[in-house]
Amino acid sequence: MENYFLKWILTFCMFCTVSGEGCSLELKPSRVVVGFGEAVSVSCEASRPVRVLGWESAIGAAHTQQDRAVQWKVESLIDWIEEPICYGVFFTAPRQCEEKLNLILYKTPDSVTISSANHTGPMLEGKEYQLLCDVQNIAPVQYLTLRWYRGQTEVYNHSFSDLTPASPVQVSSILLITPTKADNGAQYKCVAQLDLGPEGPQPPPSVTSEPLNVSVHYPPSFLSPEAETLDIGVGDEITLNCTATGSPSPVYSWQSSDPKEKMEDQPVFTSSSLLPGTYTCISSNKIGKKSVRASSLSARPSHRKKGIALHF
C-alpha cells in the first residue's frame, strides 16, 4: 500500500518538478569524490515540510515519509554510471523538486610506463625521437594530467579534459626529443596525476613511471681543436695531449711525418727527443672521427728547465 501511494504521488507531480535554485533540497556534501571500492554517504535535507523524501539510485536507494533528511549510503562504490538523485514531494508548490549529486568516482592507474617508441638501443645526437608514456585503467580521464620530467625538471604536460568517459580507459602521451651529448645518461619519467578538486584527496593522487635512462652516441670532440705550432728546444720534454670526449669512448692513433717516430695509440704522447715535423692525433668512434695536428718548427738549444705540456 505504501509503495502504491508513493508511486501515485510521483506520477501526479511529475509535471511540476523543480531543480536547482528553486528547489528546497540541499545535499551535504554537494560534490563527492570517492575512490573505487570505497564507502560513501551523502545526506539530502529538505528546508520545508515534505510528503516524501528519497534517493533515486541504482544502488543505495532510500526514502522516508516522516523525516526532513534521508541518506544515500553505499559501503563499496564500484558502479561507474551511478547518478544518484534526491527527490522531494511537498505539500505546497513547487510540489516536487530534485537535486542530482555531483559524484566523482575515481581510480588511480594500474600502471604507468615509459619507453622509446619504435627505437631500441642508443640514440644518435641531433636525430628526433619519440618517448611514449602509457597509462593503464585510469578514471575519470578528464581529470588526468600527464607530466613529463627530464631529471627533476618538468619539460611537458598533457591534459585530457576534452575526453568524457567515466569508466577506466587507457591513454598515452608522446614527447619529442632531439638529444644532444648533454642528454647522455639523462633520465626521463612521466607522472600520471588526478586533479580532482578541493573535495578530492590532497595532494592529488599520482603514479610515477620507472625512469628511462637515455644513452646518446655522438662523435669525438677535442677540447681545443685548433692546430698548434711548437718552438722546440733540444732535449725539451714535450707532452702532446689530444684527449677527446665522445660516445662510445674514442680510440686514438698518432701519425708523424717522421716514419721512425714510434707513437703509441694513447691520447697522451710524451717525448724528450721530438724532431721537427708534423704530428697528427686521430680520435674516432663508430659515429665519426676527428683529427688535430701539431707542427714543430725547429730543434734549437734549450734554455728551459721544465717540460712543455700541450693540450690540443
What does this structure look like?
The protein is mainly beta and 312 residues long. It has one helix and 28 strands. The strands form eight sheets. A five-stranded mixed β-sheet has the order 1-9-8-5-6, covered by helices on one side. The termini are far apart. Mean pLDDT is 85; it is low at 1-16 and 302-311.
Strand arrangement, largest sheet? 1-9-8-5-6
Q: Structural class, please?
A: mainly beta
Query: What composes the largest sheet?
Result: 5 strands, mixed
Detail the poorly predicted runs. Answer: 1-16, 302-311
pLDDT averaged over residues: 85
Short summary of the structure?
The protein is 4% helix and 52% strand.
Annotation keywords:
5-stranded antiparallel beta sheet, 312 residues, single chain, 1 helix, rod-shaped, mainly beta
Layout of secondary structure:
Elements: H1 2-12, E1 17-19, E2 25-28, E3 31-35, E4 40-46, E5 50-56, E6 62-64, E7 69-74, E8 85-90, E9 96-100, E10 102-106, E11 111-116, E12 123-124, E13 129-138, E14 144-150, E15 153-159, E16 169-177, E17 187-194, E18 206-208, E19 212-213, E20 216-222, E21 228-234, E22 238-241, E23 244-247, E24 251-256, E25 268-271, E26 277-284, E27 289-301, E28 308-311
